[in-house]
Amino acid sequence: MGKIANRFAKRILLQTLFWLGVWFYFMYFFSYSSNNKDYAFWFSICLMPVTMITTYLVTSYLIPKYLVVKKYGLFALYLIYTLIISSYAIMLSIFGCFIILSEVDMDNVPPLSRNFWFVLALVYLVVGAVSAVRIMQLGYRSLNKAQALEKDMLQRELYVKDQELSYLKKQIHPHFLFNSLNTIYSLSVRRMENTPEVILKLSNLLDYLLYQASKPLTSLESEIAHLKDYVDLEKVRFRDTLVVDVDYHAPKTPISLPPMLLLPLVENAFKHGVMKDDRLQIKMSCNMQGDELRFQVTNTAEVPTTTSEGGIGLSNLRKRLELLYPKRHGLETSYNEGVYTAELHIDDPQNTSNEEV
Description:
357 residues, alpha+beta, Heat Shock Protein 90, 2 domains, five-stranded mixed beta sheet, two-stranded antiparallel ribbon, 7 strands, rod-shaped
């Protein structure tokens, strides 16, 4: 309550000082080339109500209600009405002061106060100056509101993106766990001796999912290392029927990217891969070409159907890529003579559009 009172008192003080300045401004011109200072004094006072009413009417009513909201026709109409009425009031002030102050003696009237057009221009100069300041003030406020609204919308959009990314990552975790548990289940059914070793590898991968995957970025080296762990996990399940070729060229400078970005492509190769000549053949290659990351996975497969191509893994991956690298990525899949290929390329993978949750 105290702040509001102080602000109101400050505003009244500033306006009082301003109108005192306008009065001195009138006094200076009307007393020019005249020795009748008393007439200039009282004539300036008589003009003040007309000047103040016209100024406040234009700046506090016409400009905010019509000009700012782009009702230009009504603004022009009411402005013309205001100018006509104020001109009439100024004329009455001139004649009233002439009759009362000079006792109808033209020699006692300062020259400039007798010139109707000069008095009119002097008053409207004040009205125009204050109106210009008011228009700039309202424009500045509108700009600030627009910027604040734009900032708020951007923050909301980023929040939605963060929530969507978090949701997609949470979908990937159970998807990966489901595939891995199927592997362990098949081993336990066959009572394989290496089941504990597979569980240990799964434990390492889950540690990666629970801790490193919660970070916005991880190193490309770490991502590839865990891909190899996943491949080792699958090798236990497929045994001698799996042939995997990994071609990875480590970049000269460390590269970071969001975790769990490459795993869905590898998972997809195992999920939809089929045996050819009693072998499931999978090839992976990863390299940097300048600032562009290229990752390719191929696997032996049957002709993909509309429903079999992709699944949850690739669908989530496409959504994550669109959120993280809008217009800076590409994910193409193709099938040719029994080989299914998925190729991902990302321009500047370290620079994501927003951080993941």
